[in-house]
Amino acid sequence: MPRTGAVVSPALSIELDFDRGFWAGEIISGRVVRSVQAVSPRAWVTLRLFGRTKVKVSVERRSNNNRHTDVYRSRFDLLGSGPELGQALFDGVLHIPPGGSEAWQFALTLPVRPNAAAVLLGEVEQEYSFLALNPNVIASGGLPFSFAYSQYRFDTFVEYVLEAQLVEQHGAKAKTTATATRTVFMLPPPVPALLHPALHRAAVSHHTVHTQRLLPGMADAELSFMERTRKLFHTSSVPKLNLRVEVEAPEALQLSSSGTSGRPAPPMSFRLRVVAGREQSSPGLPLPGDGKRAGDDPDPDELKISVVGLRLRITAWTEAAVRGPSSYHRTKSPVVRDVRISWPEGGGLGVPCGDDVAPLDVGRAGALLFEARSSYWRGADMTPRGGDEEVMYPDFVTYNIKHWHSMRWDVELVVAKETVKIRGEGPLVVVAPPPA
After folding, report:
1. Can you give the C-alpha Rg of the chain in angstroms?
2. Average pLDDT estimate for 380-396
3. Can you tell me the distance from the alpha carbon of 411 to that of 13, in angstroms, rounded to the nearest whole number?
4. Which residues lie in Basic and acidic residues bias regions (predicted)?
5. Helix, strand or coil for residue 161?
6. Dist. CA 282–CA 242, nearest whole Å
7. Distance between CA 335 and CA 277 in Å, rounded?
8. What are the Cα distances from residue 208, in Å, to 154, 232, 282?
9. Higher pLDDT, 312 or 67
């Protein structure tokens, strides 16, 4: 079930005035070009826009020691064949001499909504659609943006294609002598900037640190063998510090855009705060953030807690609705973002301590941005590490495809040279970039 590829030849080709993505409702303009000889008493050139969403799921089965594969498909036509989607660019005598060329200009307004009659054409059933198959509901809905995801035995895509045809008539017979196609990339509708995205308290975890370095003046001390042994076995003579670590992760992530199709989104928020527990800590131990209020000057002798590592793994999920033994087939995409931020020994960002202090926003401190094909973190000269990143689409749902995300995160803190690790995960709504 391949997507429609570009068909270009001297016999016929489609050229666009602007080689970029387009939003629904925009005017797309260009020309259909022929650059080889042609002579016909009558010929006509047509241009048409197609839109469709397709799914193919292959299920391997075993029966009596034999293997066979069942293939299930689903297709929805989004646009149909109304006159607003096609144009007759030329109709008349065609004469292109050797070495010559001819170009026919066009301007076509991209539709905003699906064609209900086209969507309902064929054997469509509500059981195999994520959206209501009601003509009024379809006519009031929006078109899905261009999308493609394929995995082993699982293929889904949404595509929009321009197709031009040259038909020549000689006598009573008319024949299509040349065809050209070109994909139109439909962009997701822009979303107003999420200046204050909703956060949720993703984790509240308690940790106890045992070390002699918690004592005043011992922060950088080298421990003897005996001291390390006592620390290892948590003997009563070793000071302990109880910490409540609060993590606030985003419920939504807005993709950023550095091109003409949008503008940078606000950085992703990811906030941390630590509260020391006096009752669970050693008596008389100076606690970080003890008595501190918002706006207080930092104490140079106060015990520091720093974030030295942050890893965010965003996973995309794609589900297909298709007639088969199961109405829905779900697949887990590869991790589309694996951002690792780390600091060298002695570095990191100080994490605020106390009930009445504002948390540290690690994401905004380093301007953590995500684009469709890349991600950036511009803090403390640190950059994300990892392999090639998959294309990241916003969440969406159409008739036979649903696409959404989840995020897993790992945080590494250091206090008195001891490491504290926190992990969590949850759903993440990914939305399109803000308008340009």
Report:
1. 30
2. 60
3. 53
4. 290-302
5. strand
6. 9
7. 37
8. 47, 13, 11
9. 312
CB 254 within 8 A of CB 265: yes
Mean pLDDT of 379-386: 38
First to last CA, the chain: 35
Rounded percentage of the chain residues whose pLDDT exceeds 90? 41
**Contact between 108 and 51 (Cβ < 8 Å):** no
Alpha carbon 185 to chain centroid distance?
16
Token digits of residue 261? 């199709």
Query: What's the number of CA atoms in the CB half-sphere (13 Å) around residue 282?
Result: 18
CA–centroid distance for 207 within its chain: 34
3-state secondary structure 70-102: EEEEEEEECCCCCHHHEEEEEEEEEEECCCCCE
Backbone angles phi, psi at 246, to 5 degrees: -110, 125
Q: Which two three-digit tokens encode residue 118?
A: 């086209």
For residue range 330-340, list pLDDT tens digits in order. Answer: 666 667 788 88
C-alpha 396/C-alpha 393 separation (Å) is 8
Alpha carbons 166 and 89: distance in angstroms, whole number: 10
Tell me the pLDDT tens digit for each residue of 406-432: 999 999 998 888 889 999 998 999 999
Q: Which amino acid is at 134?
A: N
Tokens of 412: 């590494």
Q: What are the extents of the domains in the chain?
A: 13-184, 199-431
Are the beta carbons of 362 and 270 closer than 8 angstroms? yes
Instruction: Give the separation between CA 422 and CA 411, rounded to whole angstroms.
Output: 5
Sign of the alpha-carbon torsion through 305, 307, 308, 309: positive
The whole-angstrom separation of Cα 360 and Cα 248 is: 10
Q: Report the run of H or E that residue 362 belongs to, with start and end.
A: helix 362-365
Give 112's DSSP letter.
S
Q: How many residues does the chain have?
A: 436
Backbone torsions φ then ψ of 166, nearest 5 degrees: -110, 120
Angle at 198 between CA 194 and CA 204, to 5 degrees: 145
Is pTM beyond 0.70 here? yes
pLDDT, average across residues 254-279:
80
Residue 142 in tokens: 């929006």
**CATH class name, domain 13-184:** mainly beta
Return the ∠ at Cα 371 (arms to 339 and 247), rounded to 5°: 45
Q: Are 412 and 419 in contact (CB under 8 A)?
A: yes
423's CB contacts (< 8 A; 6+ apart) are 203, 408, 409, 410, 411
